[in-house]
Design goal:
By secondary structure, the chain is mainly alpha-helical. The protein has helices spanning about 10-30, 45-65, 70-95. The longest helix is centred in the C-terminal third of the chain and has 27 residues, at about 70-95.
């Protein structure tokens, strides 16, 4: 299924690049690499997290603007968030059982 012209954007590319930056940063921590710091006091991973927050805030604001009101917005948000929230224990359970 092709996305409509209204929903085509570069946010997926930005999110992918930010995710790769976070992985790179974690790899540097795990393997004790001396990675460059792109901005004074902010690692590449921290900047990537800021990118995620910025994109999320923008997309949530767009969702609010397209909604017919707070109830419509709340139902759509709950429909997007709660299915993953309910499945989380199924995937978390095997690792959380104490032996």
């Amino acid at each position: 299924m092709q996305p409509s012209a209204d929903h085509r954007n570069n946010f997926n590319l930005l999110r992918l690049l930010a995710a790769l930056a976070v992985l790179w940063n974690h790899g540097g921590f795990l393997y004790r690499l001396d990675l460059p710091v792109p901005f004074a006091g902010h690692s590449l991973g921290a900047v990537a997290v800021y990118v995620f927050f910025f994109i999320s805030g923008y997309l949530i604001a767009q969702s609010w603007a397209r909604s017919d009101g707070w109830l419509d917005y709340s139902v759509k948000r709950a429909g997007r968030i709660f299915p993953g929230w309910w499945w989380r224990p199924c995937f978390q359970w095997p690792w959380s059982v104490r032996r």
